Amino acid sequence: MTAASPARSLRSAVPPEGTSGFLLAILILGVMLGLAVLIGWQLSLLTADVFPKAPPYMILVYILGLIAVMTPFTARLFPWITNWYYLLPALVFLGAFTILPVILTVNYAFTNYSAQNSGMPDSGVRAAATLDAGRRVVTLQEIPEEGGLASYLKCKTPTCAGDTIVLYDEEAAVPFRAEIASVSGNSVTLAEPVPASLRVTQVTRVNRYEYIGLQNFQEIFGKATEALWPVFLWTVVFAFSTVVLNALAGLILGILLYNKRLKGRNIYRTLLILPWAVPAIISIQMWRALFDQQYGIVNKAMGLLGVIAIPWLNDPLWAKIAVVVVNLWLGFPYMMTATISALATINDDLYEAASIDGASRWQQITNITLPLLRNSFTPILLSTFAFNFNNFGIIYLLTRGGPPVEGQVSTAGATDILLSWGYNTAFASAGGQNFALASAIALIIFFLTLAISIVNFKAAGVFEEARK
Predict the structure, then answer these.
(1) pLDDT tens track for 315-371
(2) At the topology level of CATH, where does 219-467 sit?
(3) Which SUPFAM superfamilies does the annotation name (predicted)?
């Protein structure tokens, strides 16, 4: 009787209560979606084998169809689960845009996946070839690279048994992958005959990616002085200086503009909030033009005062100063608005009582305003630090990560932060589109951000507040 009771409760129409019921619903829905993805993936692979020209989006068709079929079936098994079906869209988007990218990033970090090792046929080293009458032996007219046929095909074994060769017809439109049985000289013996419909004229290899363990991390830490440590140090300095400067500017302006006796304070608020209202992509491009060494207004105005032109975006030190200045321009309105909002929560009676006791305006600020703003500003400062630690936009739009620094790798410029360094490694030509190395950098960024966040939370007493 005791063992049968949970089974009846799961098959009833009344949903389980509490946290355990919520977690059970998430588990059942997650298993249902996982099965739909797994079966849909296998069906898409089977479709690709039977119909090579089938569109890649067939996997989505299969997954959506399976979800539509499995949803009522799951409701029959667990009638109460219908109360939780509103979570399905959230779980789908969570899996597609959060869980899947994280899994792929972790997976690629331990591979050699790049633009070259992409698992696709290498079109740059195609070789002319002919097929014998038995349609099993492919003979290359000439091997494009030195080292023999096994080296050209990047075989795992000297005989190439079990490896793959890619065959093309005259149009070279659709590659045909064939399994290799053995190689000898310039000839490749296939495991199975080539279909009669394919007239082989060219062959090439597959630049497959494979697991290489910790080699990406060894490369990063092996050249730490050329990229990792300089970029990491600047990332911390950039995030910390931004938080300090923006907080000070926002705090001072917020306190000044909250003064009810200040005439025209609403006009000042409107003017000072404009940098926040204008899209950052427009503001940053304008600042890039203003900081131009030869034609920028900043240098032209300083030239009228007898100051020589400053290489704002061409010198490593001045470029960093320019980044901090522009980020101050973009960030202080937010801090100012947060300060004004927090000041509105402070009871005016405290200031009246302090005035009666003879406290000056400065004493009121230091003894009433700042202590009462601490609780409000702590989470704002922590979140601002975390945001600027990965603030890719301003770096990319203002300096493109440059200028280059002598002694550092080409993908890590003077103003590159960790995130932009990973972007350059993955997508810029200088980085060779090394997606695996960029994934390893992303994992390092994750652990560094996690460590810094824990230290910040502990220093701010967030954990102690949570225990209370």
Answers:
(1) 999 999 999 999 999 999 999 999 988 888 888 888 888 888 888 888 888 888 888
(2) MetI-like fold (1.10.3720)
(3) MalF N-terminal region-like (SSF160964), MetI-like (SSF161098)
